[in-house]
Each structure stands twice: as C-alpha cells, then as structure tokens.
Write a structure and sequence with these properties.
Layout (H helix, E strand, L loop, with lengths): L4 E4 L2 E10 L10 E6 L5 E11 L14 E2 L3 H16 L5 E11 L6 H11 L4 E7 L2 E7 L2 E6 L2 E5 L1 E5 L7 H19 L8 E11 L2 E11 L6 H8 L7 E2 L1 H11 L10 E6 L4 E6 L3 E5 L2 E10 L5 H19 L6 H5 L2
Antiparallel strand pairs: 1-2, 1-7, 2-4, 3-4, 3-15, 5-6, 6-14, 6-18, 7-8, 8-17, 9-10, 9-16, 10-13, 11-13, 12-13, 15-16, 17-18
Helix pairs in contact: 1-6
GO molecular function: 4-amino-4-deoxychorismate synthase activity
InterPro entries: ADC_synthase, Anth_synth_I-like, Chorismate_C
Protein name: Chorismate binding-like protein
C-alpha cells in the first residue's frame, strides 16, 4: 500500500499514527488531517511527523470521459423545483449540486493531481490527502471553520462570476442570507454577544473567478470543542441553504447521488497548539471505486434563472477539469512522476 500522507500549507504530514471517526480526538493531542463528508461521515487521521516539504512526486494521468449526476435538463428542473419551494415558503435559498465522475486510469496518483492543482489552480485552503479509504485533492477557496484557541471564524462564499461585473444584486442578497445562517449556527456554541461580522460581501479574486466573501467570527463558550462546533454548524451553510433543515430535506429529494467529501469539510487540526482550519470541500477531487469524482453547484434563490445557474456550475468546474486533464500545463508535465 502507498504511504499515507497529508500536504497542506507547505507542510507534509507522514507516519500514520491513528485513524478514528470520533471528532473528540481533535481536542486530544497531535496533528490531524480531517475529512467530513456532506452526509456526516467523519475521518480523523493523526500523523506522527509534520515538516515543511513539497508534495511527494507522483505520476498523474488524465481521467476518462466525465458524466454528471444531473444533466442540463435535470438541473434546470431542479432549479425550477427550488423556486417553487421558495414561492411556497419552504426555503429562502438552496444550493443545488451535481457530482461528476470519470474513470481513473491505472497508475494515476492523487499526489500527482494535487501537484497539478497547486500549479494550475492555487487556493488558500488547498490540501492533498492519501490515507486508507480516503484520496482527496482539494483546491478550496472557502473557509468553513478556523480555530485559534477559543476564537473561531467562518468565511462563507456566495456570489460567483468571471469578473466583478458579473456579480448581481441577487448574489449580494444570497450572501447576506447565508451570513445570517452562519451567525445563528455559531451562536449555538459561542459566548453570548461574541458573534461578529468583520467583513460583509467583500470581493475576492481567484483563478478564473471572482467571489463575494464574508467573515463571521465568534468566541467558543467554555466546555465547547471541535465536536460541539462541528455539530452546531455542519453541513456548511453556504452549500446547503436557508432555513438549513428545510433545505437539506429538499436537496435530498432533488440530488440523485451522495455528495461525499464535496460540500463537506477538508482540513487539519493541531490539537497541541489548539489551532486548525477546515475548508468547505468545494473545488475538490476524490478517488472512489475506480472513479475520479468532482462536485459543482450553485445557490438558488427566487431571482435565479435556471439556465444561468447551470452555466454557473459549468464555470466553477471548467478550470479544475482542465487542470485535471493537464491542459495548459503540457502533457509531459502532467504525466511526470
């Protein structure tokens, strides 16, 4: 079996020491890689050695033909169903997603894909992980939760375009709606009066895209740790909808396959330093049962135009799929060990 490792923020973690599905481990000791699927399956992996180092060199081969869990007609119908639910007062917003899958060629190593993403689509919360039952190459731009002692922060993204001019009033309204949801979620485990919004609807540029990003900050109440924090806020509000419980019920009916790590949480926790950062699992590839998978989606409101929302899912996926195919990087570079 290939050696397990995690690479994040220029650090390489090796020496698999523990693997558990109990998030309470994140408040114990050691350095952990963390993956939580959208459906709530928790994987915490402790590594014994963490040092500054590049990603392990590994080969990558482009995947086969991509297939989508929802085609254009199915996605458009889903958008229309969400708009009907909004009209009926069931939800205010919901994030409709689809999962792409393609055959994974023999010999393709997730570390090779992680290296391609680092060059072709650098991201603030990038992470590559290979461990028993988990193979992920993440290029997420979105912070789900960071923690420094008792101070926690979330930076939800809502609103995406190629340029600033593409961002619409609908995008700002959607962002504000999700900020309210995140404030309420954090308020369940925060000291009273500590929840703040230092930045609302700031514009951030990422490779090929611009986003509206807000920041929500709070201080954990005494006795609350990672298990309570995740339980209070998961799944991330930016990839579910509002009200969250109603959106989750609706999306379960509209999405034909599980999201897996997509829209879940991917990141690290240093239990000794009481620090950590978990990204929202977007712009994320994962290998599973001989397939490479990738998710994409869009937030749907009453003002959504169904075809435009489909195109937004294509826009979000396009650059990442090009990188995975080695396009623009040269086939020799894409395949090199």
């Amino acid at each position: 079996m290939q050696e397990a490792f995690a690479h994040v923020g220029g650090l390489l973690a090796t020496g698999l020491a523990d693997l558990t599905d109990d998030p309470a481990a994140l408040d114990s000791r050691g350095w952990w890689a963390v993956v939580v699927t959208y459906e709530g399956k928790v994987t915490c992996i402790r590594f014994s050695r963490v040092r500054p180092a590049p990603l392990p060199r590994a080969p990558w081969r482009p995947p086969g033909e991509w297939r989508s869990s929802l085609d254009r007609d199915g996605y458009v119908a889903g958008v229309q169903a969400i708009r009907e639910a909004i009209a009926d007062g069931i939800v205010y917003q919901a994030n409709l997603c689809r999962v792409l899958s393609a055959p994974l060629p023999a010999g393709a190593d997730i570390a090779g894909l992680g290296a391609l993403l680092a060059r072709g689509n650098p991201a603030p919360y990038a992470m590559t992980l290979r461990a028993p039952g988990v193979q992920i190459a993440c290029a997420s731009p979105e912070l789900y939760l960071s923690r420094d002692g008792r101070v926690v922060e979330s930076r939800p993204i809502k609103g995406t375009g190629r340029t600033r001019a593409d961002l619409l009033p609908k995008d700002r309204a959607e962002n504000v709606m999700i900020v309210d949801l995140v404030r309420n979620d954090l308020g369940r485990v925060a000291e009273i009066g500590s929840v703040q919004v230092p930045a609302l609807c700031a514009t951030e540029e990422h490779p090929g895209l611009v986003h509206l990003v807000s920041t929500v900050r709070a201080r954990l109440r005494p006795g609350a740790g990672w298990p309570e924090l995740i339980a209070a806020t998961f799944p991330p509000g930016s990839v579910t909808g509002a009200p969250k419980s109603s959106a989750l019920t609706l999306l379960e009916k509209l999405e034909p396959v599980p999201r897996g790590p997509y829209c879940g949480a991917v990141g690290w926790v240093d239990a000794d330093a009481r620090r950590g950062a978990l990204a929202v699992g977007i712009r994320t590839f994962w290998a599973e049962e001989g397939l490479l998978k990738f998710g994409t989606g869009a937030g749907i409101t009453w003002g959504s135009e169904p075809v435009r929302e489909w195109r937004e899912t294509e826009l979000k996926a396009a650059r990442l799929l090009e990188v995975a195919a080695g396009e623009g990087l040269g086939q020799r570079e894409a395949a090199r060990p």
